[in-house]
């Protein structure tokens, strides 16, 4: 019978392997790997670690968790959501204020615009400009004149 330590180690290995497909990713087929669409898992602590910081959790609610990271490059917020619907609501609310956000599956990073691309290179996701869709749902086509 395996010892408790072996079972815990096995569970940790299994958990790590579960995230492997998220971290592995594939390139665009041209050998450069530049078109990767891999994005970090939706957990504040994991995303923070990938960016090189230890997040200070400042909001822990049913609909979201938010942590603040302070690094030499600047300060940014990592927000995660337990379900996509909460993220969509949050993005819709953020569209009222405009701005650019780094958005991944069930997470978003709020930072100064010059930090977004370096963060995207570390965690994946897409930089979204919510200023153009002011008041509209993110991803909605612009209103016709």
What would your notes on this structure say?
This is Lipoprotein. Keywords: Signal. Helices cover 37% and strands 21% of the residues. It has 145 residues and is of the alpha+beta class. It has one domain (38-139). A six-stranded antiparallel beta sheet has the order 1-2-3-5-4-6, covered by helices on one side. β1 (56-60) and β2 form a beta hairpin.
Keywords:
145 residues; six-stranded antiparallel sheet; Lipoprotein; signal
Concise overview:
The protein is of the alpha+beta class. It has four helices and six strands; from the N terminus they run ααβββαββαβ. A hairpin with a 2-residue loop joins strand 4 and strand 5.
List the helices and strands and how they pair.
Elements: H1 4-24, H2 44-51, E1 56-60, E2 65-70, E3 75-80, H3 84-97, E4 100-104, E5 107-110, H4 113-123, E6 126-129
Antiparallel strand pairs: 1-2, 2-3, 3-5, 4-5, 4-6
Signal peptide: 1-23
Keywords: Signal
Organism: Streptomyces poonensis
